[in-house]
Design brief:
This protein has 362 residues and is of the alpha+beta class. It has a domain at 182-307: Chitinase A, domain 3. Helices cover 52% and strands 14% of the residues. The protein has helices spanning 15-31, 52-62, 72-98, 105-116, 121-130, 135-155, 164-173, 211-226, 231-238, 256-262, 264-271, 316-345, 351-361; strands at 41-45, 48-51, 179-180, 184-193, 250-255, 282-286, 293-306, 309-310, 348-350. The strands form 3 sheets. A 4-stranded antiparallel sheet has the order 5-4-7-6, with helices on both faces. Helix 7 crosses helix 12 and helix 10 (256-262) crosses helix 11.
Amino acid sequence: MSSASRVQGVRKFPAAVAAAVFSLSVALSLSGCHPAPSPEVLATVNGKEILASELDRAYKQNLDASAPAPSKEEAAIHRLNLLHGLIQDEILQQRAAKLNLVATDEEVDAKLTDLKAPYTQEEFDRQLKERNQTLDDLRRDIRHQLTESKLVNKEIQSKINITDAEISTYYNAHKSEFNQIEPQYHLGLIRVTNQPSKQVTNLQNNKAGNDAEAKKKIQSLRSRLDTGEDFASLAARFSEDPVSSSNNGDLGFVYESQLKTEDPAVFAAISKIKPGQSTEILPMIQGDGASRKTVGYQIFMLIEKRPAGQREMSDPRTQLGIRQLLRTNHAQLLQDAYLEMLYNDAKIHNYLAEQIYKNGAN
């Protein structure tokens, strides 16, 4: 539910946000606009001000320098979307404070130490500069992330209990889906690209800026795997794959035919390892012929290989997979409902939305 996870690029504007902004605009047209306390104040949440400087910081950190410059309207949409995220974050932080769940200085320091561990001070400072971020900014973001995680664990995760009856009901209703027509591979992925971008999806906000940095980073991660560090943890903290990094590097199950067709070299590497093992460093190749080039490096982990055939309900792996699926679905439902309840209880005033609507109406 973090605000950062809701903003992936300048051109993306989630439907839920669009609907919320449209509803807000309609409400504004009916109720009239209210002047902001000062030009610097863009919104308030239960009296707590969200300032233009905060939005500017978020905008700079999320803008992809490699993408085409956004139009005036696209930039305004992106800023409104980001402000929506800041409002949501403030609602969650206030709720956590009310429940005494705010991350402590000790927890923030421990996380910061963990983030800095793989780098020299010079490398760490350079990464902060590339992301237009100060150390105080990073500490604030860490505190908010840890606080939100504590809130979710207490208010959402602790309330979920998947029963054996629910698992049985799901299996019986989807039995045909557990009849596999060919082998499947459950894969994990750690990916590092050599393409410059400010769009970072991992927990460490860590991004290689060129090929030399990408090689150094992937070799360091390979070494850490060799010493026994957890693949999922490293993927969540360092992988630059936008799809899987937020899910601890988990790619889910992939059909054998898909692997063979999309990347024979990856399939060959995976075929040589056993469940629980990971491949050596593999290049990410883009293009063909003269345009063929290496755009990054990757390591795959074989979590599980499932043979073709019917997966029985008695198989612990089948039960675990269903339990995880149901738990994820339950968590999403509760999170959505919880956010709506918090919004209902909050007194929110979005002055930026009023200004945009007013200027558009004129």
